[in-house]
User: What shape does this take?
Amino acid sequence: MFKYQFDWSVVLSGQYAEWLLSGVKVTFQLSVVSIVFSFLLGLLIAVMRMSNTRPIRWFAHGYLEFFRNTPLLVQIFFWYFGSYKILPMAVNNWLNNTNFEFAAAVIALSIYTSAFIAEDIRSGVRSIPREQMEAARSSGFSYLRSMQYIILPQAVRITVPPLINQFLNLTKNSSLAMTIGVMELTYQARQVESYTFKGFEAFTAATLVYVVISMAIAGLMTLYSRKVLNPMRAK
Amino acid sequence: METGLDFSVIWRNLTYFFIGRFPHGALGGIALTLYLAVTACILSFFGGLILGMLNISHNRVVKYTSLAIVNIIRGMPLLMVIFWMYFLLPAFMGRTVSESWTVIMALTLFTSAYMSQIVKAGIDSIPRGQTEAGLASGLHRWHVMVYIVLPQGLRNMIPSFVNQFVSMIKDTSLAFIVGVSELTHVATQINNRTIIYPTEIFFFIAVIYFIICYAFTSLSRWLEKRLAWRR
Assistant: This one.
């Protein structure tokens, strides 16, 4: 091992650097698209989970438990290899005409993460004391208006850190998309490794990208809880 | 392609799903998944304990180095950790390391970083007064930790440990990438051989994972209630 010749130029310039950069781009695209979908889906499931209608609540509960307790990789394989039998013909045709690898990864990542997001949103709403709702209602606000003006503004602020954390997890989990051939960062790092045998350099570059993103966001979160959450609790 | 679902492929390969080629060859399938998860979980319990203690060390160098290690690992995707292990382990050991052990070491390193945060929170959950009382009665700092803080703290950590074990079971599916024949890998093998039943096969293993993980998730919830009640 100690005879290893480091050659950082491999990952800093030329064709291989371009591969890695395009990998960063795909990781970014995949993450952003999935974040949007997972948030919307998670919000929907959270609302269903808090519904007064039992079947809706049960459905949401089953959804949460199933997708949280199944590996993401298996879900990716299911959507990529196995979805054609359960989806309608028209959807299959449409999917086959798009970038199906990318689409399957987005579907799997969004559904998997939405289950975690729904729970975070729900516990955010539940963290607001019941009395506040009662107080709002007795001062004459309707249910929706109490939600809008009293409960949600507070719940959203509390839910932001766990949500960002889930988005960060999603970004890291997007590396699993390489298994179905989405050419994101991890895929490209491995590609560079197999072309040049400079695995150490390639993986260092890719690791740095992930770690820098994570640490930047962790830093922002610390700032957020100092500026927004602590004043809220102090009141 | 309008074909109905045909689950007979599952029954025909049932033992392969459960134990791989076991009596005649290497262990595989669900049994190997559980073996990987349990081994890595036990190792990362100790890894997390050590890292967690280093994180609250009074020695600044030790504290910040270990915090940096924890944060770097937590910032990486597990897949990346597996690739690093695949690379570095043979280089450090000076010999080839089996794929199973590569994955176990990667899972251990990765989960230790998360466990260390649970350990830290568990230690924080014990009132400082107890440490002070221990020190005041003449015990050494390490004795206070081992005999007073940890026994109570560990009890508070049990539900989180069980949750971490559930994540671990799900994470073992990544062993597929380096060719360890655990459940997901076995499923892709059967899928490659039979070709026309991907929906049935991947749905089946999803259900298997779900049953195992859900059982432990429920256990963790039960423990949480029970331990809180007895306190």
In short: Chain B is about 80% helix and 0% strand.
